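Continuing the batch. This is chain 6 of the set; chains 1 through 5 are on the previous pages. Same settings as before, nothing changed between runs. Recording input and output for traceability.
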Amino acid sequence: MFQNKMEVSFESISENESFARVAVAAFITRLDPTLEEISDIKTAVSEAVTNAIIHGYEGKRDNQVILRCEIRDREIKVVVSDTGVGIPDIEKAKEPLFTTKPEMERSGMGFVFMEAFMDRLEVESSVGKGTTVTMYKRIEIPMRMEESCEKSH
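Output for chain 6:
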């Protein structure tokens, strides 16, 4: 059983969203994910980090977003947490098109995308204490070239 973990924290500024995407993508490369799997994970990480910055910290800079990633066998666990304002109603927040920031032209699709691109999503939040988003995705074992050729014949 292969196992590996990493944790990084960064300032709550929107420029760090792309850093988080790349950090997770680089961390999981050992599993040889497909481009689609990498893209799905990067999109979900992007949404979670953006939510922490825009909603959790309401765009205030001097806060930290914590990103943890764990690989266990072929499953990836990504945790994004903040110590921001929290979510009063998680089920309402998960509804498509629901946003607390309509003036910022937020689409309200963050949790929807996270659920669509990952295998499982868990959200824990306490008002005034912050939010933790935990996402899981299983990376399929890559098919070797010989197997691919055999299946096409």
